[in-house]
Amino acid sequence: MGQQKNLEGYVGFASLPNQVYRKSVKRGFEFTLMVVGESGLGKSTLINSLFLTDLYSAEYPGPSHRIKKTVQVEQSKVLVKEGGVQLLLTIVDTPGFGDAVDNSNCWQPIIDHIDSKFEDYLNSESRVNRRQMPDSRIHCCLYFIAPSGHGLKPLDIEFMKRLHEKVNVIPLIAKADTLTPEECQQFKKQIMREIQEHKIKIYEFPETDDEEENRLVKKIKDKLPLAVVGSNTIIEVNGKRVRGRQYPWGVAEVENSDHCDFTILRDMLIRTHMQDLKDVTNNVHYENYRSRKLAAVTYNGVDNNRAKGQLSTKSPLAQMEEERREHVAKMEKMEMEMEQVFEMKVKEKVQKLKDSEAELQRRHEQMKKNLEAQHKDLEEKRRMFEEERANWEAQQRLEQQKLEATRTLEKNKKKAWYQKPYQSLSSP
Amino acid sequence: MASTEIARQAGEGARAVPLSGHVGFDSMPDQLVNKSVNHGFCFNILCVGETGMGKSTLMDTLFNTKFEGEPTQHNQPGVTLKSNTYELQESNVRLKLTVVNTVGFGDQINKEDSYKSIVEFIDAQFEAYLQEELKIKRTLHSYHDTRIHACLYFIAPTGHSLKSLDLVTMKKLDSKVNIIPIIAKSDAISKSELAKFKIKITSELVSNGVQIYQFPTDDESVAEINSSMNSHLPFAVVGSTEEVKLGNKMVKARQYPWGTVQVENENHCDFVKLREMLIRVNMEDLREQTHTRHYELYRRCKLEEMGFKDTDPDSKPFSLQETYEAKRNEFMGELQKKEEEMRQMFVQRVKEKEAELKEAEKELHEKFDRLKKLHQDEKKKLEEKKKSLDDELNMFKQKKTAAELLQNQAQQAGGSSTLKRDKERKN
Predict the structure, then answer these.
(1) pTM score of the predicted model
(2) Residues of A in contact with B360 (CB under 8 A)
(3) What is the set of domains in chain A, with CATH numbers?
(4) Assuming Cys at both sites, which of A103, A326, B24, B351 could form a disulfide with A271, CB separation 3.0 to 4.6 Å?
(5) d(CA A302, CA A324)
(6) What is the C-alpha separation between B205 and B171, in angstroms, rounded?
(7) Taking CB atoms and an 8 Å cut-off, how many pairs form between chains A and B?
(8) Closest residue of chain A to B354, computed from CA coordinates
């Protein structure tokens, strides 16, 4: 992805591994190991041998000392320190497994336990306020096979088939000191054949670029499944104090690679591949669990439009985000449509109102005009009337004057007439 | 040995047991280191500073190589971020280094929005990581982490104080990224001025509440050197890719007429300190702080913004499925509510508009009723006037008729009297 650049001098980031080392020691380490197998196969003893401690002692008796009716899942946490490195070790024991007469579903409590640890991690990873997340997920499951010498039991096959996709399964042949090397060899071959036949995916050692390492890995692969012997007792052999099992015919030494594969198991489990077991748990088993869990959640709420069984790579949040955006778009469209309808209706009504206003206005104008016309008519009539009257009155006055004049004349005439006799009388 | 985080977390639930021999888990740190080395390392630096501060030169000097890039001009219209990724290797350690430069920072007349593109860039990287983390099928362990692990803030060597652009920008960035302020081109400042300048800068940062990156002092192996370096902040650096012969060695330096400034001379500048702190001692811590502090803060804010919250703060964790389902139902409910609200709003608007129009209609009718009434009144008046005119007309007519009658009578009488007179005269 990036450009290759050559450095012309020492920069110093080669110290990064040291920085990482420092920080990891400061933080400390944790590891959770589960042991599964019938009672009496030496599980507790093997744990004690692996970690050179008395995990189960008189004070903290192991589950094997207690009779269980049903399969239990029990956790013991211990803090161990070595060479400045602190390790929080959790051993998960499963007493009662395979001990009943009817062992159907005896794996269920174990599966439930593994899932519940995944669930816890998923929940703490999904919190809004996340703090340092303790990792209590099962990193490795040691499955103890009884040393029958024949092959896997149906329970073995069933268990491994159900758990190989949930946890790193490392099958072990327990109490290997009951098998001769040849018997052991054959037993191993038979078991591996059956494992392949049933397509069981046991933990695989990763390939590396290192030639040396790859050779070692190949050697280990040839010895699978590892046949182990455990012991709580220290015996003196040839002046050395070793862990072993004392028989009349000799001592089976735990750490003797000719006697059993214990050292291979220990080296692989603790000294070289502990980190890888954690990584595979985190990157593969946990992610499988998580994606199945989250897909179920989103599927529940998803439309029927989406193809069934399609595992979307989107996160539920991204999906919700998409749905929200879709909804916003839908709402915007709806709003626009509603707005349009609204505007249209308003326009209609407003138009109607305008029309009726215009109509009324028109009518009013008309009436006004009408009235004005009538007014004018009336005015005209009045004017004419006034004129006529004036004329007539003038005429009347004239007549009256005339009459007055005539009357006066008459009067004078009459007066003169009356006065006349008097005048004639007076003259001789 | 001091107790580890894991031990503290385990607390009472775990008991310490002694080992009776060498088990071998002390190789765990080595296993982890091997895994990291195989996977390769990743580091992203952001350089913020005005054009011409020597950001590119400093990067070249720090990493002893020539990175891409032409020197930029001052005429950028806004601040853009340019990032380049390089694959470097030193012994068996592979480092994917990304250098992000701010182009055009501080060149505009109005610098109010300068910090925005930077904040957006940083947030975008957080967002990309968050999206990957939230995917259903995710590949976190092979994800190329682009989140900014360190931000080198280049301060101009004015010798006085921080510019307000610097304060504003750093304040906006301090909760999002590890800020390491450095005084650029510090060969322009004399030693005494430098001491005062550093004090002024530090006090200004403190008084403005700007949180710069502190080299961690909780790990005993590096606590001493880190705390001593903390007191030398901000580092005054000089960068140069040119080499000058000094004695019989070629050293990186800047040659002036009055002398030669040697980059790797601790008396001349703090370059060595910067390189030591940034790369050789605390690179991993910078990356870790970005992941556990800055990224978590971003994530928390983003999720809270979307409405998520932890129902129970401390104790029992809730079921994820329930949360998501509840969230989804709540979400759908909200959407439906919004839809409903919008509908209601429209119904309301329609009602209001209808009422308005009705009101207008009513007013219109009232107006015309009034006009009509006025009109009626006018008409009535007109009628009255007409009537009075008619009355007058009638009166006049009557008068006229009466007068004419009288006249006729008078004429007749006068005529008769005249006749009489005439008659008498005749007699």
Answers:
(1) 0.72
(2) 353
(3) 22-228+260-297 (3.40.50.300)
(4) B24
(5) 13
(6) 9
(7) 355
(8) A346
